[in-house]
Amino acid sequence: MLVDSHAHLDDDRFDKDRQIIINNFEKDGLSYVLHASSDLQSSIRAVNTAQKYDKILASVGYHPHDAKDITTESLIIIKGLAQKEKVVAIGEIGLDYHYDHSPRDIQRHWFREQVRMARELDMPYIVHDRDAHRDVYDIVFGEKYSGTRGIMHCYSGSPELAKEYIKLGFLISLAGPVTFDNAKKAKEVAKEIPLEYLLVETDSPYLTPVPYRGKRNQPAYVKYVAEEIARIKGISFEEVARVTTANFKRLFKLV
Ligand code: NI
Which fold has domain 2-251? Predict the structure, then answer.
């Protein structure tokens, strides 16, 4: 059984067949899917969906793209949602200097505030870092606390940087790009980081792995990410599935 540690199940691109996809989780060999959120509305949807289905867990928070829309009031609502049943993390939060949909100083401000919320609630947090390695590092380490932990989602940094985050209790999650021929860094991370610190994810409907690259992604395709890690490490698919699932359960204290 596999875990998809990051999927956007509320995305419009699942409107036509969301129910079918969720019903197939068992058949597709998925034990858990983490429904990530990007703003207040998607956080509400994540909580509702997680409460409805055993295999779905939720994270709540604001994506850096939407940082410009955050208010102190909206974060108070997020904080309330974070304490509901089946909500296991704050996220996805972080910095995105590739698209710059929100001004960078605003992104940094609200990333820091959401990390502080995770600390107050003693919850793990899920980090989105696109072309912002230095500033993400400064905020995560600047705000570190005893018990800091979380997920570096769709990790795109170096193995050396990954090892720094592991020291703070983070797991390194790899997505579809690890299957792309030109994804040298992701393949290096898959090779160098011990399996005990890795997770697999889809970030669906985005980042579709080979052989479905270009089509819509879905949680079942997380197996292609796991297969590629197994190939790179020269171990079995079953071992990747078993250990990454155990990692996920350890992080979120699931039995
Ligand atoms: Ni995402």
Answer: TIM Barrel (3.20.20)
What is the distance in A from the centroid of ligand 1 to the CA of 126? 9
72 closest CA partner among 117, 23, 104, 20: 117
pLDDT of residue 255: 81
Centroid of ligand 1 to alpha carbon of 222 (angstroms): 14
Return phi, psi of residue 92, to 5°.
Answer: -90, 140
- Per-10-residue mean pLDDT of the chain, 255 residues long, equals 98 98 98 98 98 98 97 98 98 98 98 98 98 98 96 97 98 98 96 98 97 97 98 98 98 94
Report how far ligand 1's centroid is from the alpha carbon of 232 (Å).
24
If you measure from the C-alpha of residue 36 to the centroid of ligand 1, how many angstroms do you get, rounded to a whole number? 6
What residues does each domain of the chain span?
2-251
From the CA of 238, how far away is ligand 1's center (Å)? 26
Cα(92) to ligand 1 centroid in Å equals: 7
Residue 63: per-residue pLDDT: 98
